[in-house]
Amino acid sequence: MNKNKKCWLKPLKADSNFNHYYNAHFPGLYSIVVGSGKNNNCLKRVFVSKPGMLHEDLMSIAGKFLWHPHGYDFKETTLAGVVSNINAYEYMPDDEQYNSQTMFHVYDIMAGIDTGKLPKLKKHKNKVVFFVDSPRHYTVGSSYTLNHEIIHRVVFTPNTDGWFACLVEEVKKYEAPITVYSPYDIKEVPNAKNLYKPISSKEAQLVLDELYVNIVKHGD
């Protein structure tokens, strides 16, 4: 690392008071807690993938990444690569703002990243129709905020060295949602058996250190 080169981001530190995971949501993606708010209520997580490890379902809107709301309002900041956020809105017959619509299957999801347990799906009988908005792209250093009730999904694009990373900062927590959506009729959470592998704070820090070197390399 060029020590004389300034970086827009301070070095990241894995918080040893919290759990960190590999294969978070999809294979190849780390989830590393780097801070918390009052009473550990709101967390700051870095989602990061090393070169060649980002799953194809996270790199395309056609991928089988489940559409979902969150249990918190949050702010996302791109650290490496590009984040594309796509929101979906429930169909309103008199609303002409959106130009595409998709029939979505509806599922209840059990467990998730905060539990370390394998998620399972329970399918609803009825489908819903959503208008899918155009993707909005966020490059390094740019951010967006999202309300906990908005249904969305993201597409991740690595940088030229193959690194991807973003910082997700919880702003206000609500009851965790259990409903997720997919345009595909799926039987289970994709790659569920391989998800949420705990890693040590030491291993998490090594990943963050490697990431920081790459962020400095690509910094202005």
Structure notes:
This protein has 220 residues and is mostly beta strands. It has one helix at 201-218, and strands at residues 20-22, 30-36, 43-49, 72-80, 82-90, 101-110, 120-123, 128-132, 136-138, 143-146, 151-157, 164-173, 179-182, 197-199. The chain has a domain at 20-87 and 134-174 and 192-218: Jelly Rolls (Sandwich). The strands form 3 sheets. Strands 5, 6, 7, 8, 9, 11 and 13 form a 7-stranded antiparallel beta sheet that branches. The radius of gyration is 18 Å and the shape is globular. The mean pLDDT is 88.
Which descriptors would you attach to this protein?
220 residues; mainly beta; Jelly Rolls; 14 strands; globular
CATH class of the domain at 20-87 and 134-174 and 192-218: Mainly Beta
Overall radius of gyration: 18 Å
- Low-confidence region ranges: none
In this structure, how is the largest beta sheet organized?
A: 7 strands, antiparallel
Integer average pLDDT: 88
CATH-level-2 architecture of the domain at 20-87 and 134-174 and 192-218: Sandwich
Give the SSE string: EEEEEEEEEEEEEEH
Query: What count of helical segments does DSSP give?
Result: 1
What is the CATH fold-level name of the domain at 20-87 and 134-174 and 192-218? Jelly Rolls
Fraction in beta strands: 35-45%
Give the helix level as a range of percent. under 10%
What separation lies between the terminal Cα atoms? 14 Å
Q: Assign the structural class, choosing from mainly alpha, mainly beta, alpha/beta, alpha+beta, or little secondary structure.
A: mainly beta
Number of strands: 14
CATH superfamily of the domain at 20-87 and 134-174 and 192-218: Jelly Rolls
Gross geometry: globular
